Amino acid sequence: MSASGGLIVHVVDDDDGVRTGFTRLLRSAGLDVRAYSTADRFLEEVDSVAPGCVLLDITMPGISGPETLQRLKGKRNVLPVIVVSARDNEAIHKLTHEVGAKMFLRKPVDDQALLDAINWVTKDSSGA
Amino acid sequence: MAPMDWIHAGWTGMTVVSLMLAFVYLSIWIRQRRLGVYLTFALCSLSAAAIAIFELFMMRTPSPEVWAQLVRWLHVPLAALLVNLVLFVRLQFRASRRSWTAPLIGVALAVLAANFLTGVNLDFREVASLESIRIWNSVPIGVPVGEPNPWIILGTINALLMIAFLIDTVVIVRQRGSVEERQSVFLVCVSIIVFLVAAGTWELIVSTGLIVAPLLVAPSFLGISLVMAYLIGSEILRASEMATSLVTAEARLLETEQQMDLAASVSGQGFWSWDTTGTEPWLSPTARFLLGIAPDEVFEWETYLERVAPDDRRRLGSAINEALHGDGNIHVEFRIAVRGKDVRWLVALGKILFRHDHAPVHSYGVVVDTTERKMADERFRLLVESMPSAVLLVNDSGAITFGNKQAESMFGYAQEQLIGMDFETLMPQGYRSGHADFRRLFAGDPAARNIGTGTELVAERRGGGAIMVEIGLTPIQIGQDHFTIASIADIGERKRMEREAALQRDELAHLSRVASLSALSSSLAHELNQPLTAILSNAQAGARFLAHQPPDAGEVAISFTNIVDNAKRAGDVIRKLRSMLRNDRTEFVRLPIDDVVREVLQILRSDLIDRRVEVVLELAADLPPVKGDRVQLQQVLLNLMMNATDAMAGIAHPRVLTVCTLLAEHGEVEVQVADNGPGIPEPDLARIFAPFVSGKKGGMGLGLSVCAMLVQAHAGMLWATNNSAGGATLHFRLPAYSDALSPERA
Fold first, then answer.
1. CB–CB of B542 and A64 under 8 A?
2. B599: which residues sit within 8 A by CB, 6+ positions away?
């Protein structure tokens, strides 16, 4: 059980600075955070039972492999995915769609926007 | 008709003989006035002829008065005869003392005076009568009878004086003269003495009446005539012999001359010989030919001088002058205009012989045609003068012996000044001492070589201005001496152009970099975005931690630290970007190639991700560093990797970019950038490095040509191959770092 109503945010970003930054930001907002440096790690280590969401940097090496995308998509059914990226173009949008993400946020991300986004995507799952 | 009696015949004969002799001697004297001796004897003979005529009349006249007068006038030709005899002997033999002349002439004149002033003539005071006698059945001859004149003694004294003089002459000549001379003086003087003795004694006898006989002088003279005739014969004989030997000698001389001239003409040499007492020099036919003087033309100095080139006349004159006042050696070169042809170069070599008082007596020498050699020299000189580089001829002690016009204008010293100058004077101060060693080294191993190529070799003009040069050295040998020809080219202009070209290359590389980086702008922006995101998140986290109750200072501190780190990260990206965008001068440093590879991959990271390119790195361990400009090598790798990525744009299968570094042969470092795209068509493998060749639609096609230019500037090689498994690989090789001045290929 988490302090913030049981939500776990999974931060998946290969950039150390960004990952640390998000992690600390979310913790400062009282959320429970798990951080993963690669998509594969996330897929292997994630505990899919607990409710939460995924903060996924789509501009990571290896993310665009179709297998990974399938598996992530599968995960989405349990955990909603928010895609973040510094890039904002058609290719990115396509990937975002393929992974079945609910939302797309552009880096640098404003803290309130991020928290609101998390609230929004998890309200369905946390609620009844 | 009655036959002539012997008296008439004899005296007529004697007259004729004397006249003949006189005629012979006179005709010789007329032709050769110098020989006064002939005149004297001619006068003797004439006198003798006169005497003979007088005597004939004396013998035949019946009248004593006529006889006395005849004798009286007889003494005139007699005196003439005696004086001329004396003169003749003196001139012929040149052996008497001067002291004889005056007394002899004096006494002769005294005799003549006595003859006319005392008595009826010298012999008789008076002639009483003439007796008539016959000698050997001759006609009647008049014989005087009268009183003797005591003054006849003067005649005797005269005769005796003459005899003494003659004896003295004989003695002197016998002491000094040749056999011939001694013989002739003996003959002449003895015959005269005999004549004097005989005639004088007979005169005395007849005048004193000891014997009643005619007064006769002429017969005694006969002896002299005979002697003279004999001597003339000898002389004619001798003259003929001399003439023969002279002709032989001349013939031999001519032959020798001809041989010499033949030999001389073969070698183009003419001989000349000038006896200064003569007016005209002797010139061999070849000499005449060379000097343009016709075989029979008389040589005249002024006319000849006119044909000598004006500039050379003074030189010719002063050379001769110097020889005249100095050691007599003539050596002068001059030009002469020859009829109908152009100018000919001649060298005159000769010698002047002097008397003890240094007056010139004789000169002789050789004149040689050196036109061929001069023309060759001239051609050589023109060739050297026309060369665009400066040419200097340096001897083995480092002194300049010749410089052409270009050298004059390049270094600012006149050609005359260059001669004798040390070669080192043309180098900047600092290099001078080192150069002497270099010269010694060069002399030890003389071989044609270029120095200064690829290096900054500086020469110094007069006044200190610097010239950048390249020098070609060629060792040569002239006779026994060793020289070096230095051909010096001013490469300042070339260096300037090289520098300009280098600047333009840098400019081009820069623009290419800018173009590449513009293409990468989005990925670069992405690179910046990451640290910015981190900064933002950390800052906002920090704010939130601060708003906690109580504020979590520890977390805030950590947030600040993270902000600082990420700001630095951002700074690094910007710095890298700026260094790529700057147009710095090329700077070759010691560079590990792996660092460059990693830096470029960092720049390209987001782009590669964006395009879903997987990167495989195979970096060899322990590679030697290369010598390169960091930014330029980054640019090369950037270009190659972007090209590889572009090549894979259209493929369906997973894109893999493989970057390898490895050690190649000769210790060089090779970098390979491989893609698994469609590969490069075979004919294009070399073409792709040419400018304006692009596989991309709308591409400028400069990227690979710029890469090629940069790799070349690093003394490296760039080439492309196709992979067996599909796709292409671009390779470049660089030499390992060494301390040479600039990258040089082994």
1. no
2. B576, B634
Question: Which segments of chain B have a pLDDT < 50?
Answer: 743-746
Q: Would you call A24 and B558 a contact, using CB atoms and an 8 Å cutoff?
A: yes
Question: Cβ separation of A86 and B526 shorter than 8 Å?
Answer: yes
CB–CB of B538 and A64 under 8 A? Answer: no
What are the residue boundaries of the structural domains of chain A, listed by start?
A: 8-126
What pLDDT, on the 0 to 100 scale, is given for residue B540? 93
What tens digit of pLDDT does each residue of B195-241 get?
Answer: 888 888 887 787 776 666 776 777 777 788 888 888 878 888 888 88
Residue A30, pLDDT above cutoff 70: yes
Amino acid at B74: L
What is the pLDDT at residue B519?
Answer: 73
What pLDDT score was predicted for residue B543? Answer: 92
SS (H, E, C) B514-582: HHHHHHCHHHHHHHHHHHHHHHHHHHHHHHHHHHCCCCCHHHHHHHHHHHHHHHHHHHHHHHHHHHHHC
**pLDDT at residue number B700:** 59
Token pair recorded at residue B71: 């004798």
Instruction: Give the pLDDT score at A128.
Output: 38
Is residue B309 within 8 Å of B335, Cβ to Cβ? Answer: yes
Hey, what CATH class is A8-126 in?
A: alpha beta
**pLDDT 10s digits, B293-317:** 888 888 877 888 888 888 888 888 8
| Surface of B (604-623) touching A: CB under 8 A | 606, 608-610, 612, 614-615
Does B96 contact chain A (CB < 8 Å)?
no
Question: Which residue type is seen at B77?
Answer: P
Nearest CA of chain A to the CA of B524: how many Å?
11
The reply to whether residue A61 touches residue B536, judged by beta carbons under 8 angstroms, is: no
CA nearest to A18 within chain B: B534
Residue A101 contacts by C-beta under 8 Å, 6 or more apart in sequence?
Answer: A56, A76, A80, A81, A82, A83
Query: What are the structural domains of chain B?
Result: 6-239 (1.20.1070), 254-374 (3.30.450.20), 401-486 (3.30.450.20), 491-585 (1.10.287), 587-746 (3.30.565.10)
Which chain B residues contact residue A110 at CB under 8 A?
536, 540
Residue B202: predicted pLDDT? 82
Q: Is B602 on the interface with A (CB under 8 A)?
A: no
